[in-house]
């Protein structure tokens, strides 16, 4: 499997959202993304690793000061229970998620002001908590933590033998969440085989 260029860094999301972040109640929509993955096959072909894991801890991470709004990233450390595709050098990985936002009054700044911190939410983005189990479709070599989800459609929570219905609106998410865990594992296995035969390639950003 190979990595495709994905313009999904949380810093880029912040730049897209900063115009509305101070005046729109959460949740807010994602900024434009370069790639949307429409199937398990596209996710597997574009991922560097696919893993079942459990969230071991969450913590406050990087702070992104955008003048009138300060965003704090949430670091999520995951223990790998089973690697379905790709390679990992360790049994844990860390990803970044939207954490918290706070409107800050600056000298000479006028307008609506709320000093309280609140969760920073993006549409269709799951907010992971300690103990959550899930299936993670991951891009590697992504600073600063090394790993990054392939968008909202790159994460599915596990509820027993089923995938949890998280009521997200993304069509890929709706299709995958209707599967059982066993069906998803079989779909990943079939996609890995198709990649090996050269039938699936990483999905690239559309031209223009």
Give a verbal description of the structure.
The structure is a single chain. With 208 residues, the chain is an alpha+beta fold. It has one domain. The chain has four helices and eight strands; from the N terminus they run ααββββββββαα. Strands 1, 2, 3, 4, 5, 6, 7 and 8 form an eight-stranded antiparallel β-sheet that branches. A hairpin with a 2-residue loop joins strand 1 and strand 2. The longest helix is centred in the C-terminal third of the chain and has 16 residues. It is globular.
Q: What number of domains? A: 1
Q: What are the segments in which pLDDT stays under 50 over at least 5 consecutive residues?
A: 2-32
**What's the pLDDT, averaged over the residues?**
82
Biggest sheet record: 8 strands, antiparallel
Inertia-based shape: globular
Distance between the termini: 25 Å
Can you count the beta strands? Answer: 8
- Helix-and-strand structural type: alpha+beta
- Strand % is 25-35%
What share of the residues lie within helices? 10-25%
Rg, rounded, reads: 18 Å
- Provide a count of the helices: 4
Order of helices and strands: HHEEEEEEEEHH
In short:
By secondary structure, the chain is an alpha+beta fold.
Descriptive terms for the model:
208 residues, alpha+beta, eight-stranded antiparallel β-sheet, 8 strands, 35% strand
